[in-house]
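Usage

Read records sequentially. Each one opens with the input sequence:
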Amino acid sequence: MIHAHQPWVAVSAKRPGLWRPADAAMPPAKAASPGAKPLSRGRWRSAGERWTCSAMAAAQMGVALLLLAVAASSLFLLGCIRLPSRQALWNVELPHEPLDARSNCSSAAPTVVVKTSLWYSDHAFHVPPVFPLCTMDACFDFSRCPATPAHEPLVYSYWPGPKYFARFNSTRWHTDDPSKACYFFVFMSAGQPHHFKDLPYWGEDGQNHVLISFSDNWSGPPAWSVGKAALMLTAAHLTVHRATFDVSLPLPPTWKRQATGLRPLGVAQRRYFLTFMGTRYLGSMHGSFRSSKAFKALHNGRDVVVVTQCGGSTNRRIMEEDPSLLPECAADAAVFRSFSYPALMNTSFALVPAGRQASTYRFVEALTAGAIPVVVADNWKLPLDDIIPWHRCLLLFPTHQLPRILPSLRSIPPQAAEKRRQRCVSIFEEYLASDDILMRSAMTALKSHAGGMFPL
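and closes with the structure output:
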């Protein structure tokens, strides 16, 4: 813009769109070198010229990137570049060995060799995400949840539930009228066929349905069958679990005898420091770390008792195929029989190692006895962690860090251990103490995903 109170003059008669203040001196001309062409442009450029230069530079950059992409594609098609798989994006190395003589590439062409797996590839339960990426906003229809005086969701169950959902049809959440239902519960078993589309209210994609399983050796329904349904599983993995949509459930305890008498005992009154009694797993199946030397080394026979046996049909088959395992299993069985499970629950810390799944019945059994759970598992979604502050109670170790368990536990002062144990008892009594309380906790976790729709 040219102001009226300030004189302006044209920079050049040949360039009428370019102006400068009258009192601004033109920059001195540089001495021309012999043979040099005279300068054809002044120091001041119009906006149009600046835009033209920027556009030309951008076009040149685009052409360069296009040529680079074409070159990379050619090298890839010739086999000179091998792209990393999704499972190996974090571990890349550049080898120094020469290219294969059969390759079409020049020896000067760079070759990228990617390791075939992530560092945890040999750890159990690291399954990739397989279910649809659902959230409550994306996969749940809130309009199907009518307002009730108690602000509680109504649930239609296709058939009676097992375990701690056995009395669900007599609760305030149950409705026999599917038109009033906010949720539709589908109770499953590991051997049951998954023909969810045959359910009368499944619709196109199972919206507002919840698939529930209490199996201790099952990873869930086939991914293609789930649709927009949520999952409530006792065998939940972090890499599969969909936060604020699915619910991880605990396996119900199978042992409750003498638990009432053990729960009030403080750490100073308990007979053992750390205990475990259970099955070891031969071969390479999940839970095979229970057969490792590091796991067996935890046992000292005094304040730490870790005993196993080679029970189960799979272990028997493996021993038939490899008789060299028989002597060691026989020795383990002899030590195993010298202890009793109820006596070993009189412990400050209860070892809870993953078995066929990361989840295990011993988890709630340890809490039933008032012990502090020491969980050894990879990729386990802790049960009901939407509502339970587990970090205040249990201790969690990865399966490849067994030698660190005892030093870590023994470093905890007795007062701190007792405080942690008391928090475990409080959590057990509030969320897990009975079938009715377990069912209520599961419903509370489910309701927490709906936010203010169902205030907790």
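Summary fields computed downstream for this record:
- Confidence is low (pLDDT under 50) at residues 1-5, 36-45, 75-119.
- The chain is about 25% helix and 15% strand.
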